[in-house]
Write a structure and sequence with these properties.
Shape: globular
Helix content: 10-25%
Order of helices and strands: HEEEEEEE
Strand content: 35-45%
Structural class: alpha+beta
Radius of gyration: 22 Å
Number of strands: 7
Distance between the termini: 81 Å
């Protein structure tokens, strides 16, 4: 009887470990340094100012504050006839958000017509891919 209880316990532990292993492999996580689309097609909601054009919006897992965390790379082009500064907001499905200004400072001036600016935003504590993203790009007053 004692052997049967031991065998049942080991069987239960083995099944639980196998289930956890398979659940962890359900969605392959990109390797650190590999650039990938941030979300699946149709899962990116965008509101972009008419003066801006997105040239690149991609993700990568890189080291930040001792962990491999998600980084958003965005490259915007000024398609207006005036110099611009843009405000970028990225909202994730889990409540996290990042963003900032492009260019970050105006010491070197604003983004000239036809020119592009880029920045990489790390998301502290985000070690998995997001399911949905809301991306908002607005122009800033001069």
């Amino acid at each position: 009887m004692w052997h049967l209880k031991n065998l049942s316990a080991w069987l239960l532990i083995t099944l639980a470990a196998t289930g956890l292993l398979l659940a962890g492999c359900a969605g392959p996580k990109p390797k650190p340094g590999d650039v990938f689309p941030c979300v699946k097609a149709g899962k990116l909601d965008t509101t972009i100012a008419p003066e801006a054009e997105i040239e690149d919006f991609s993700c990568v897992f890189k080291r930040f504050e001792g962990c491999d965390v998600l980084h958003f790379f965005i490259k915007l082009k000024n398609i207006s006839s005036e110099e611009q500064r843009f405000k970028v907001n990225i909202f994730l499905d889990n409540g996290k958000a990042v963003g900032g200004l492009l260019p970050r400072t105006t010491k070197k001036g604003l983004i000239q017509p036809g020119q592009s600016a880029e920045f990489t935003y790390p998301v502290t504590g985000m070690t998995d891919r997001p399911k949905t993203i809301t991306l908002i790009v607005k122009t800033m007053a001069k």
